[in-house]
From TrEMBL, chains A, B:
This is Phosphoribosyl-AMP cyclohydrolase. GO terms for cellular component: cytoplasm. Residues 44-117 form the Phosphoribosyl-AMP cyclohydrolase domain. InterPro entries: PRA-CH, PRib_AMP_CycHydrolase_dom, PRib_AMP_CycHydrolase_sf. In the N-terminal section; belongs to the PRA-CH family. Belongs to the PRA-CH family. The gene is hisI. Its main location: cytoplasm. Keywords: Amino-acid biosynthesis, Cytoplasm, Histidine biosynthesis, Hydrolase, Magnesium, Metal-binding, Zinc. Homodimer.
Length: 145, 145
């Protein structure tokens, strides 16, 4: 006999339980959002596979999986602009990860602190982009050779 | 003759230009991160198709595309927990959107303010989840009937 309510099925376990059970998509990936632990700003959105997640958890450095290069990479391994993880969280259905990080240099390969340096403006002729917080914090040509 | 530098190819246009040109994946979606405009907390990660993006920009309410239900939905249309968009930003390669929102009630269908109510702890036997900010702000059974 069990005292569990009938509603405590597998879905609830994933959402209300404490088992770390990432739900990878068909490509074996979860989405990861990295925010600046100090400012709260969203720095980037990228993907992690099982190995990237494992290495991130074990080392405290952010590791990602590049879909275009089909390769595991440690953030900052070329640029030196590493991300130290202050906290990692999973979302309700465990297919997205949020990491709060201490970002060295800038997160974006264009030289900005964040990849989100353009806002969307709704104008008469349709949506347009507007630069915001778009100052470059480093010279990408000097960093990525 | 053009005065454009040779490096100003299509890739740079997407990253350095001001044309709103979302890059949808094979399923026609971009990833969207919603954060609380007041606290900076990440509320949820979801997806938008072209129609959801258009409606969000035009109405100022967050619209998403549900991959599981294969349907467009306005956040809060069932629960009343709408998201008013304070600012929308695109990332460098325009395949991810960040919206800062004023969230009514809670964003998560489990009753929490945010979907990210569990942190990942690295323990000897492997990763475990730990509840953080997990108090329910509404009763999902009363809201989703």
């Amino acid at each position: 006999m069990t005292t569990e309510p009938a509603s405590l099925h597998a879905h609830d376990e994933g959402e209300e339980g404490l088992a770390f059970a990432p739900r990878y998509d068909a490509a074996g990936l979860v989405t990861c959002v990295a925010t600046d632990a100090a400012s709260g700003e969203v720095l980037m959105v990228a993907h992690m596979n099982e190995e990237a997640l494992r290495r991130t958890i074990e080392t405290g450095d952010a590791w990602y999986y590049s879909r275009s290069r089909k390769a595991l990479w440690r953030k900052g391994e070329t640029s030196g602009h590493t991300q130290r993880v202050v906290e990692m969280r999973m979302d309700c259905d465990q297919d997205a990860v949020w990491i709060r990080v201490t970002q060295a240099g800038g997160a974006c390969h264009t030289g900005r602190r964040s990849c989100f340096y353009r806002a969307v403006a709704n104008e008469a002729g349709g949506a347009k982009l507007v630069f915001v917080d778009a100052d470059k914090t480093f010279d990408p040509a000097a960093v990525y050779k």
